[in-house]
Design a protein that fits this description.
Helix content of chain A: over 70%
Helix content of chain B: over 70%
Radius of gyration of chain B: 19 Å
Order of helices and strands of chain B: HHHEEHHHHHHHH
Number of helices of chain A: 15
Structural class of chain A: mainly alpha
Radius of gyration of chain A: 19 Å
Distance between the termini of chain B: 10 Å
Mean pLDDT of chain A: 83
Low-confidence stretches of chain B: 256-262
Distance between the termini of chain A: 12 Å
Number of helices of chain B: 11
Mean pLDDT of chain B: 83
Number of strands of chain B: 2
Oligomer: heterodimer
Chain lengths: 319, 262
């Protein structure tokens, strides 16, 4: 039950900032925050709302990134078509994963999703003829809105903001609708939900598919924004953990939580990159040590996440 | 124990680094390091349990998954900061010495690793099966509450089980050091195979895991002949997914164990 007002403020600020701030570094950070926030929120649809905790979501992200990059480089098509195509492919893959691992719970499900993303990692990095293998794909810059060749970072902010709002609305739907309540019932006690006639299996698969499609859309936009697709990155377990981490820090099952988590994580990353930039490998390590420790500490001390903590502490419950 | 440790591979990696540094700085042979590694990794396991795992041992599966994933990230990157991303190799004098057994050529280090692994696995198997402590561990894994009611200090048992697991992976890491290069993310490739074997054999079933490990190894080796080494990992990953889908309790496990969520 998240209030809409904080989210409206958050998205309005994100949308208005580019009108005032022209600093490319800052706008770049904002674009990344919105992309990672949307990915984390998309993960949250499966991981938080449906309780289907996946550590293989990079599979969907990578599919989106590859679909957009390959359609552009191989057939000269628009990355927008790639975004849609990636979402469709990810939905199909999500359907397969969701259907096959439907019975699995807890660590079994996690292992299955990791295995799936590893399979795609191997395909992406070894199938040289199609994906150009582990060299990755540089996405050519073709100016124009239709080809997503946009140099102006302000436009990028608005594009990814639109995606973020879409993902947020999906979450909001799950917060308020009958389907959402049914999903929560499945998450809390699947057997009880089944006995009440809730189509638990179908709901879980559907949640994974929606989550997969949204994650793929994030991946497609990310590929166009960054301009390079590297299979060892887009299919990595690290990336999957990143989605989960932002959602957990922000608060599982809350609509705005993943975005707040992404704000924290991306800001920290950007700050440390600016501070330790010259050290190279050292930076990545220090950043990730903080990231891992944060995961352990949040799970231990604030399992309800930032939004849950704020809600419990500062917002008086109005019954 | 019913906790999947996603940081298992990172402990393996640390053991490989231990072997490397002992060799590079103190000129200790990895097989001497092996003896030192056993108490060292037992202590490391105990400590990591106390510091990290104990608070979440009664929490949900997801909390445990994320805690061990967090631990894995931390260990991996501590290694990255401390030892850099370079692949290191323990190059012993007998590195190139090969042994021919019935037409199959093996590296000396592989033979020793195999022999020590057999001894350790049998020892662990016997320990879990016949010793009082082993029985207590299995009882606790089966039913935490009932064991506590029987007067078992389950908290200590968890710490001990965790530490024994880390000790084993520490020994494995030292044994692997003369065969494979070590780098901060080296753990993942080994631990994925280990998960496949354990799930195939049935979680909590040691003999099953041993048989499954041999089966996985056979799939890997035969697979690299058939489809080439570049694609061999995909075979056991698909095998893994197949097992999870068809028979998640493993070949010998109890049916339905995967859905119990205990």
């Amino acid at each position: 039950m998240s209030a809409v007002a904080p989210a409206a403020v958050f998205f309005a600020v994100a949308g208005l900032v580019p009108l005032v701030v022209r600093d490319a570094f800052f706008l770049d950070g904002l674009v990344l925050i919105l992309i990672w926030g949307s990915s984390a929120a998309a993960w949250n649809v499966a991981g938080g709302y449906a309780g289907q905790v996946s550590l293989g979501h990079s599979a969907f992200f990578g599919l989106g990134a590859y679909a957009a990059a390959l359609l552009g480089t191989r057939w000269g098509l628009s990355p927008w078509l790639g975004l849609v195509g990636g979402a469709v492919v990810a939905t199909i893959v999500g359907l397969v994963i969701g259907y096959l691992s439907n019975r699995l719970r807890g660590p079994y499900f996690v292992l299955a999703t990791i295995a799936f993303s590893q399979v795609l990692l191997i395909v992406g990095s070894r199938w040289r003829g199609f994906t150009s293998g582990s060299e990755g794909i540089p996405v050519p810059f073709r100016p124009g809105f239709w080809t997503l060749g946009i140099a102006d970072k302000r436009v990028w902010v608005w594009i990814v903001l639109a995606l973020a709002v879409v993902v947020y609305l999906v979450e909001l739907y799950l917060d308020r609708s009958r389907r959402g309540y049914q999903l929560a019932a499945v998450r809390e006690d699947e057997d009880a939900a089944l006995s009440l006639g809730v189509p638990a299996r179908w709901l879980k698969v559907a949640a994974i598919c929606v989550s997969a499609a949204l994650t793929a859309a994030c991946g497609a936009l990310w590929a166009q924004y960054v301009g390079f697709v590297d299979p060892l990155y887009v299919f990595s377990v690290d990336l999957s953990v990143r989605f989960a981490l932002a959602a957990i820090i922000g608060g599982l099952g809350g609509a705005l939580g993943p975005f707040l988590g992404a704000v924290l994580i991306t800001t920290l990353e950007t700050y440390l990159r600016a501070t330790f930039g010259g050290i190279g490998a050292g930076f990545v390590g220090i950043y990730l040590i903080i990231y891992g420790s944060a995961l352990i500490l949040v799970v231990r001390f604030v399992p309800q996440g930032l939004t849950g903590w704020i809600a419990a502490r500062f917002v008086r419950r109005t019954a | 124990m019913r906790v999947v440790n996603f940081a298992h591979g990172e402990f393996l990696m640390l053991a490989m680094y231990l072997a490397f540094w002992a060799f590079a700085l103190l000129h200790l042979d990895p097989y001497v390091t092996l003896v030192v590694s056993l108490p060292l990794f037992f202590a490391l396991g105990w400590l990591s349990y106390r510091a990290v795992m104990r608070p979440v041992i009664h929490a949900s599966h997801n909390a445990q998954v994320f805690t061990t994933v967090g631990l894995s990230i931390v260990l991996q990157n501590v290694a990255l900061v401390a030892f850099s991303a370079d692949a290191r190799f323990v190059r012993t004098d007998y590195y190139a010495v090969t042994v021919r057994v019935a037409g199959a050529v093996s590296n000396w280090a592989q033979i020793v690793a195999f022999a020590v692994a057999v001894v350790l696995t049998s020892g662990l198997f016997a320990f879990m099966r016949w010793s009082y402590t082993g029985k207590v561990m299995r009882a606790t894994a089966q039913d935490r509450q009932a064991s506590a009611l029987m007067g078992i200090d389950t908290d200590r048992v968890y710490a001990l089980t965790w530490a024994v697991g880390i000790t084993c992976v520490g020994a494995a890491g030292v044994l692997l050091a003369p065969i494979y290069p070590v780098y901060p993310t080296a753990g993942l490739q080994f631990v994925l195979i280990a998960y496949v074997a354990v799930v195939l054999g049935g979680l909590g079933d040691m003999l099953g895991a041993l048989i499954a490990a041999l089966a996985v190894a056979a799939v890997e080796v035969i697979g690299s002949y058939v489809v080439g080494t570049a694609w061999k990992e995909i075979l056991y990953l698909l095998l893994f997914i197949g097992i999870l889908v068809v028979r998640p309790a493993g070949l010998f496990g109890q049916r339905g164990a995967e859905a119990l969520g205990t």
